[in-house]
Write a structure and sequence with these properties.
By secondary structure, the protein is of the alpha+beta class. The protein is 24% helix and 33% strand. It folds into three domains: 105 residues, no CATH class; 128 residues, Jelly Rolls (Sandwich); 69 residues, Phage tail protein beta-alpha-beta fold, CATH 3.55.50.30. This is FecR family protein.
Length: 320
């Protein structure tokens, strides 16, 4: 039996609210809810987009904030704590009230063409676009897509593998940081971490910034660039090693320990950080990751100490 639309949107709104809580830790439950029905993901992302829109309107003073819930609220008013979020995170409750109002009046359908898809650390997801192109998202990733243009995507942060259906008349473009990638019939992996962009090509070719540097990356080539730095690092990569994270394999040929830590964070859902003393240390090898996310068990292979510090794993110099 199909899920009632009102019930689905109510549940989606609840997830939007819960995910606003900095202490949210129900990622497995959230992933299971999304996976049960593709329509749930669509409902969630429409409401999440509405949330962002309402935040902008509130900041611009174009929408009045909702009045606070009184201390002695009527029985039919759900207290903020029971909804799983704080007033500070939701601008005094105004955004939640505004989004709920959109659902109530049916205005949620009139959304802008841009929308975002996000995965939590440790969570992976594949999106198929209208043209048949596929985007596989690693953990801790956010992309922005356009309902009116399936040949355009923005990688805001994280890691994604793009399997693009080639069309010479409408090249697929990926915006990442201050750069543009244009496909030439391609399967390519992109990482956006802070100000750093890394690209690896498995099939076909990609052109990096066609209107300026115009660096062509054919299959088996990789690129690393930092925003604002004219130097672009180019090197070789084994095509079958590109996006090994999809099979639980992280393959390195001289990447830094800081890069390894970032990869482990996306994959495992744990926070992994490289001590400054080893952050620049180069690593060559293959990490085979299991479902148990045993970061500590990688110490010997990485030739570092791995220790727990609060909620983080720290990669630090080995002690005698």
């Amino acid at each position: 039996m199909a899920e009632d639309r009102h019930d689905m949107e109510t549940a989606a709104l609840d997830w939007v609210i819960r995910l606003r809580d900095p202490g949210f830790d129900g990622w497995e439950e959230f992933e299971a809810w999304l996976a049960a029905d593709p329509a749930r993901a669509e409902a969630y992302h429409r409401l999440a987009t509405a949330d962002q829109d309402m935040a902008g309107l509130l900041a611009a003073g174009l929408l009045a904030a909702a009045p606070p819930v009184p201390a002695e609220a009527p029985a039919n008013v759900v207290p903020l704590r029971r909804a799983g979020f704080t007033r500070r995170a939701w601008l005094g409750g105004a955004i939640a009230a505004s989004v709920a109002g959109l659902v109530g009046f049916g205005m949620i359908e009139r959304q802008p063409s841009l929308y975002q898809i996000e995965t939590a650390p440790g969570m992976r997801r594949t999106v198929t676009l209208d043209d048949g192109s596929r985007i596989a998202l690693n953990g801790g990733t956010r992309i922005t897509l356009d309902r009116k243009d399936a040949r355009h995507a923005t990688l805001d942060r994280g890691e994604a593998l793009f399997d693009v259906v080639h069309d010479e008349k409408a090249p697929f473009k990926v915006l990442v940081g201050d750069a543009t990638l244009v496909d030439v019939g391609t399967s390519f992996n992109v990482v956006r971490d802070g100000r750093v962009t890394a690209v690896q090509v498995a099939e076909g070719a990609v052109v990096y910034n066609p209107d300026s540097e115009a660096v062509r990356l054919d299959a088996g080539r990789r690129l690393r660039a930092v925003d604002g730095d004219p130097h672009i690092e180019l090197a070789a990569v084994a095509p079958d090693a590109v996006a090994g994270w999809r099979e639980g394999r992280l393959i390195y040929d001289g990447q830094t320990m800081a890069d390894v830590a970032a990869d482990l964070s996306r994959w495992s859902g744990e926070t992994v950080r490289a001590d400054p003393r080893v952050a620049g240390q180069r690593f060559r090898g293959v990490l085979s990751l299991g479902r148990d996310h045993d970061v500590a068990g990688l110490a010997a292979l990485l030739d570092v100490d791995v220790r727990r510090s609060g909620r983080e794993w720290i990669l630090s110099p080995r002690t005698p």
